[in-house]
Amino acid sequence: MWNRLSNRIQDTCTAALRAVLFAAAYFLSAHLGSRLTHQPSSFTAFWPPSGLYLGVLLLTPFRQGPFLVAGAVCGNIAFDLSCGRQIVVCLFFSLGNTLEALTGAYLVRRTLGGTTSLERMRDVLAITVPAVATGGYAEDPVISHPVEHGFTASLRKPYTLSDLGDILEKTVVRKPPIL
To answer: Is residue 179 part of a domain?
Structure first.
């Protein structure tokens, strides 16, 4: 009994330490993204913590998820407060970023059957298609007219919303075989 309790305490401490380290990594990658954004801007166009958040959720056991979410929320709020944002705005940004990462992790795990691997093309597409799909598209006003939104340059995505729909239909939607 004591061994089991000791193991649980050790697992909890390990998960808490990972959450603190993840919060720091989230905070630093958020600052990296803000450094790559034309200033002054009220938002960051390139957000490295999104990929970090998704990757960490996919590569760690499910039961450690709450610790990681807490770490990401702390890192996100710390970054937003360091940029002078109000706490309410910080909370909404954290909520949006968390919902994005949790949804992405759920979709990838559901598509891959609970495992994360890059050995098959299907697995690679399951990870990249949601990232591309949620990353903005050519008809987004900020992407299509970057100068009007304070950017001096941009990297255009080579597709429109209808192109994105076609790609998603071909790669994600499974059609029954014709008999």
So the answer is: no
Relative orientation angle of helices 2-35 and 48-59, to the nearest 10 degrees = 160
Q: Both 152 and 72 in a single domain?
A: no
Per-residue pLDDT of the chain (179 residues; tens, 9 = 90+): 667 767 777 777 888 899 999 999 999 998 888 877 666 555 666 788 888 898 888 888 888 889 999 999 999 999 999 988 899 988 998 999 999 899 888 887 877 676 666 666 666 666 666 665 555 545 556 666 666 766 655 444 555 666 656 656 665 555 544 54
- The distance from CA 53 to its chain's CA centroid, rounded to whole angstroms, is 5
Query: Can you give the residue range of the structural domain that contains 94?
Result: 2-35+44-135
pTM here is: 0.64
